[in-house]
Amino acid sequence: MSTPALSLSRRGTMSQFARATFELAKPRVTLTVLLTGLAGAGMASRAMPGALDAGLLLRSLGAIALLVAGANALNMLLEQDSDARMSRTRTRPLPTGRLSPDTALWLGMLWALTGLTLLSFTVNPLTGLLGAVALILYVLVYTPLKAVTPWALPVGAIPGAMPPLLGWTSVAGDVSLRGALLFAILFAWQIPHFHAIAIARRDDYERAGFRPLSVARGIPRAALHMVVTSVVLAVVVVGATSVLRPGAVWVAAALSGVSVALAAPALRGGEHTLRAARKTFLWSLLFIVSLMLVLFGIP
Amino acid sequence: MTKRAPMLRPWWLWALFVLLVLMIVVIGWLWRQGAA
User: What number of C-beta contacts closer than 8 Å exist between A and B?
Assistant: First the structure.
């Protein structure tokens, strides 16, 4: 038998636990992933009308959400020490002690394996395989590598580019040239995007023990990479768009041109580099949303 | 600046995790082939 006061405090504890569990899944990251997955599924259904039904979309996005939530929880478990040293991540459930590492471990593994099972058995095995590759690369390769070498960036860009491809293969059943081009765009987009963040937040990254190029080799080197990979992104985006939606090549070229123009002043050094990195980061968000809409057929 | 990678401990639990991931993918594939 419980007193009202006790049951009230128990309810409070339960809701705190639920809130911490929700945060463990990185809901904003998961939502972004779902949107890009939706874009991939949408493009595939335009390419092959009739292949997408509401049930398939629901199963696919639900499974992808579980997989991503699990990967995020395991990432938070592995990065709890560095999270505690960064102002942006200090209030996460593990550094604040609101969840125990064991809870994060078991929930992360449970979510990831459940998501993967649903993808493999209720969507299709190819999507399950690609999801498994993304999960292993993100949790067991990219996350440990972040503290060791700048090469973590291109490795992490592989799982980062996977969500739209998962959406695509959920509907299409195979990768095909169009799915691969979608993957290539997202892969190429992440490189200058993350160089920009790592230049702007260099000190925070160093304090956390991470080694992006801006920490390992210095900001001028990272700036050079940001500019060169912005040019590479432009080439990839224009090339891919000429196949995916030939009518929109000029839009893709204009968007990419802005990316290069905003990144280029980073080569001048000093305050110019920091300003260019901040602009490149903000523009990259607008860029990818616009490009997805353009490729999706809007307008 | 010391390089520190996060610890994957206990290692056998993570090995088991990878094994389960591979199993799900392989069984999913075989199951779909059987169903087709």
Answer: 64
Query: Taking CB atoms and an 8 Å limit, are B25 and A129 in contact across chains?
Result: yes
Determine which of B21, B26, B27, B31 to mutate to test the interface with A (most A C-beta atoms within 10 Å). B21
Given an 8 Å threshold on Cβ–Cβ distance, is A120 in contact with B24? yes
Q: How far is B24 from chain A (nearest CA, A)?
A: 6
- Contacting residues for A37 by C-beta, under 8 A, at least 6 apart: A60, A61, A64, A163, A164, A166, A167, A170
Q: Where are the beta strands (DSSP E) in chain A?
A: none
The structure tokens listed for A299 are 């307008």
Tens place of pLDDT per residue across chain A (299 aa):
444 554 556 667 889 999 999 999 999 999 989 988 998 998 898 888 887 889 999 999 999 999 999 999 999 999 999 999 988 899 999 999 999 999 999 999 999 999 999 999 999 999 999 999 999 999 999 999 999 999 999 999 999 999 999 999 999 999 999 999 999 999 999 999 999 999 999 999 999 999 999 999 999 999 999 999 999 999 999 999 999 999 999 999 999 999 999 999 999 999 999 999 999 999 999 999 899 888 877 65
pTM, two decimals, is: 0.90
